[in-house]
Amino acid sequence: MRNVGLIVRRELGSYVRRPSGWFIAAGVLLLDGLLFNAFAISDQAQLSSQVLQLFFYWAGIVTMLGGIVFSMRLLAEESWTGTDVLLFTSPIRESEVVIGKYLSALSFLTLVTLLTLYLPALIFINGRVSLGHVAAGYLGMILLGASTLAVGTFASSLTKNPFLAVILAGVFVGLMELCWPLGQIADAPLTAILSYVAPHTKHFSPFQRGLLQLSDVVYFVSVIYIALLASTKVLESRRWR
What pLDDT was estimated at residue 90? Predict the structure, then answer.
């Protein structure tokens, strides 16, 4: 755990020092604000809960995009800059590298996500929403971002090019979400199987409505575990080449 902590501090420091991390954070916050004003706030009268649901719907998509972009500079960047040699020759296990880098990116993404709390707070000016609804929505967004980031970490482990890593991560997450419409036109039992894979449409939707379901939490945790385990295995195979 000591090695994991060192990697987390090192990576978080790089996020703070480099302008790229702040540019991505600013982009996420800007998109959230624009989408909130464009879709959640409208000329038509809406219940406060409906406004909040619309905010979470679009903010969830932005969080997924943020997770994809943040994963760009994880494992692929080490290969791109040649610093992966230092990692592979140091007494650090591959799992510690993966977990440390993942936790650092997740910490920064979570911070950026929580900075959007001012948007649902604006609803209190002219309406009223349940704090439980807000808490459930943000928990769902953090889990959604964490699972997307884990998939992005796996994509980043497959290539030495950070930009290709972003493309791969986007393809993987897009294919997972595409399973939802495919599930609607497929026959049983493929309908249930394909629909279950979609992270935003299937598993984030209850959080968006303020519902906390154990099955959805299990899904996100499972995706994170499988993706990080696969990333570790890829690094192990690269270390001994």
Answer: 64
pLDDT at 230: 92
Q: Give the pair of three-digit tokens for residue 118.
A: 């001012």
Q: Is the peptide bond before 189 cis (omega within 30 degrees of 0)?
A: yes
Cα–Cα dist 227/219, whole Å: 12
119, 39 Cβ separation under 8 angstroms: no
- Stretches where the chain sits below pLDDT 50 are none
Residue 151: which domain range?
Answer: 2-239
Tokens of residue 208, six digits? 């968006």
Total tally of structural domains belonging to the chain: 1
At 41, give phi and psi (nearest 5°).
-95, 125
Burial-class residue 154 by CB neighbours within 10 Å (0-12, 13-18, 19+): buried
